[in-house]
Amino acid sequence: MPEDIDEETALLSKRGSKSRTPLPTFQLSVIMLIQICEPIASQSIYPYINQLVSELDITGGDEKKVGYYACESLFFLTEAMTVLQWSRASDHFGRKPILLIGLFGTGLSIFCFGLSRTFWALVASRCLCGLLSGNIGVMKSAVGDLTDRTNRADAFSYIPIVWAIGASLGPLAGGALARPHDRFPEIFSGTFWRDFPYLLPCIATGSFVFLSCYVVLIFFKETAPSGNQKSWVQARDEDEGIMQKDHKCTGPLPLRALLLFPVIISISNYAALAFLSTTLACLLPLFLAMKIEIGGLGLPPPAIGFILSAYGLTTGLFQFLFSARLVRRFGEKRVFATGMIACLPVFVLLPIMSMIARRSGLTIVIWALVGCVLVLGAILDTSFVAIFVFITASAPKSSRGTVNGLSQTYAALARAIAPALSTSLFSLSVQHNLLGGYFIYFVFLVISGLSLVLAESLPDQVWDDFE
């Protein structure tokens, strides 16, 4: 272990880095509490969302059409409409008030989701969550405020770890607490729980979000630069391919001044990564839930919740053990590209599992391949650490919220498109037997290949921070 640390230090020195600055542990812990709220609240619905849509009788009894009506896209679509405004507001008014508004909106919306008894009520609750949630961009801006080039990869490595924990706890709660009158009739026997069969997991996750809101209110200290801080307007030197300082201005920069090559290429790659990771996150539970004869594995919600929890656990362990070290050792670009490559075998293994299940049922080979998909998903998530470093380094300190908000806008659009496209393509493929029902996987193989081409546009080394 000491030899590994010495080798990492030498590599940091070769890349022009100083010794690592200690992380502000307590403040980062509060930020990570904010981070864990979104996956717990949003992904707790995944184990039962397809069953809920079926029970609302929107599909007319045709289970092949469930994918058309899955409403995961709504949060990201509405988030894309407002996240830039919330993030720009954090540059002017501070990170803390925006984070509190986002937490409150998340908690309120998940309670509304559990009380929904019509499809349009579900739509309204998911839209409310997206409109009021500006936390993702603001939270990453706060992490950037608290770190520098020497320790930023370490700090950002906690984001996918904490997300993975939330992605593990959320589906586990959703799968275990859904329809409590069926699973725990001795406790939840009243007609209320029959009328609102999915309220209990919403109560559990919503209460956690409101508790987190209180912790942030009491303990979080403002991290945004003061409003009168001077910033450099940046320009790109076309000959050298690097950033140059131009002239000073006071406070956050206008949006147009930020639309430069480092910002644009970082955001583009982040959007591609968000699209593919969200596709996997939404396609996997749908694949697990659909009957074997129509291209899935036909698993019940508790089993799906367990698998998704295992996915979160696998991702979290991988990030904790390897992500920051991999970035320091191999550089941000190589780590990012390697993660993107992991998408390719995922979209090969899913149709293979379907073919095996149709022929032999749920054999041990199926479960082994599910494990392989989980590991590949963990490798994919390592790319987030690398791209967060690229985005943060491309932004002036006084406009970090704006750049993160802009990146989150395009990532949210990608995440809005991904569920609708993936679930609709799944239904379209099996309904019309396109490529034997596996047309969807061919489409995403092509998209994964194109994303690798885009990743090559990133520089070999991250540009230096700008004031």
TrEMBL record:
The keyword Transport applies. Residues 27-463 form the Major facilitator superfamily (MFS) profile domain. The chain crosses the membrane at residues 98-116, 155-178, 198-220, 257-290, 302-323, 335-358, 364-391, 436-455. One of its GO terms (cellular component) is membrane. It comes from Mycena maculata. InterPro entries: MFS, MFS_dom, MFS_trans_sf, Tet-R_TetA/multi-R_MdtG-like. GO terms for molecular function: transmembrane transporter activity. It is a multi-pass membrane protein. It comes from the Eukaryota. The keyword Membrane applies. Its main location: membrane. This is Major facilitator superfamily domain-containing protein. Keywords: Membrane, Transmembrane, Transmembrane helix, Transport.
